[in-house]
Amino acid sequence: MEFWIYSSRQEHLREIMNTRYKSQFCDFLAEIIQQGKTTAEFKPDVQVDIVASLFWSMIDGICLHYSVLWENYSYKEHFRVTEEMVMNYILA
User: Fold this and answer.
1) If phi over 0 gives left and psi between -120 and 50 gives alpha, with beta otherwise, what is residue 40?
2) Which residue intervals define the domain YfiR C-terminal in the entry (predicted)?
């Protein structure tokens, strides 16, 4: 997280991080969601890019909380519930 904050203040690093985040995380998940829409497994009105971004935002938040709270934070349960929430939202 410290590196993410640092890189956001450095123009050349910010560009690298944005590209990596978009191409390696969001685009990957967005492609899966789009395939699910195409095969009618997912709702047709799901906003692919927004759902992909929200998913990773929740995962990042869970990781940040765990980095501070350690074993006092039930990260596995939070991951499970995040997955369940996203699937309930997108499944047809």
Assistant:
1) left
2) 1-69
